[in-house]
Write a structure and sequence with these properties.
Creatine Amidinohydrolase; 6-stranded mixed β-sheet; alpha+beta; 365 residues
Length: 365
Amino acid sequence: MDTVIGSAEVDRRYGAVRRAMDEHDLDAVVVAGSEYTGFEGAVTYMSGFVIVHRYAYVLLPREGDPSIVFPAEARYVGEHGTAWIEDQVFADRPGEWLGERLAGKRVGVYGLDYVVAVRDFVALNQKAELVPFDVDFDLARAVKSDVELDSVRDSVRINTEGFWAFLEAYEPGRTAAEVLAPAERLFVEAGCGRLTMNMVLVGPEFAIARGDMVLRDFCIPSLEIAGPGGHWVEVSRALGRPDGEVQGMVDAYEEYFETAKDALRPGAAAHDVHRAVARGFLDRGYRLGHVTGHSIGMTMIEHPKIGEGVETELRENMVFSMHPHAIADNGRDCLYMQDTWLVTANGGEPLAGLPMRIFDGTERP
């Protein structure tokens, strides 16, 4: 991660997490990250450390300095000098080390259900009272600082340039590998490293195109990347000439895009935003096959989601990936396009600057 994080930004992040700790009467928080599951971003957020392989934990006590804990059997799990945390521990059993440090305490754990290694959970659970903390941790980091928004905008710029590179290479008859390669090259040169998750979706049913698959008249480059600052973003538009059923979904997408500009505002409940942007699809008889949107940051998918029953109120400077997934009655024809949105005092701002429509392949930036 090339972005330099100053002490004021570190204090802001820790302060937000500690306020959440106070609300739940916690003595400490353990943040788990694992390269194997794609949840490494929380550790980066809390320490500046980027996990190359294996896993790590950040321990933030209610008072005092944090620690970052690595498994000793893998002495190198990344560039340790990038972490701003001075207390770097290499433990034979990280869970046992944490358990001894936190014995008798009430501890919130981010990653309790999906990330923490089983052996570490067993050892830690024997010593401390563990409290699931995924939602509360994500809500504590959901409002982005100016430093973070600079990183988000840089990621969006890179992602959008990748879309234009894909569009320039696209034409029916070329393989998915040939068309996606220029975008992937751009992402590597821009410093994304391995923080990319890109694929080409084809056919009305959204099959993932293999490298040697020949593209036809319609496809979607699903481009999801994190730039050098480590903030994930998602930007995609459909390309080509869809059939009549899919073409009819474009009107609903245009309506959602305009509605979201008003709906994504401070004080709105995530549930109400979902209902507002979904209305145009449902009124036209389409079903929604994927979550309407979700907070996005240094982990690709964070809380809150924009979905049914989520009463979390939006706040200024939250960032969301929005991607309604319209599915026709036949269960096969569908349309899925993504954008990254910023919640501002005046409503939602789509950060990519791309019109919400299907591109025919002739456009240029």
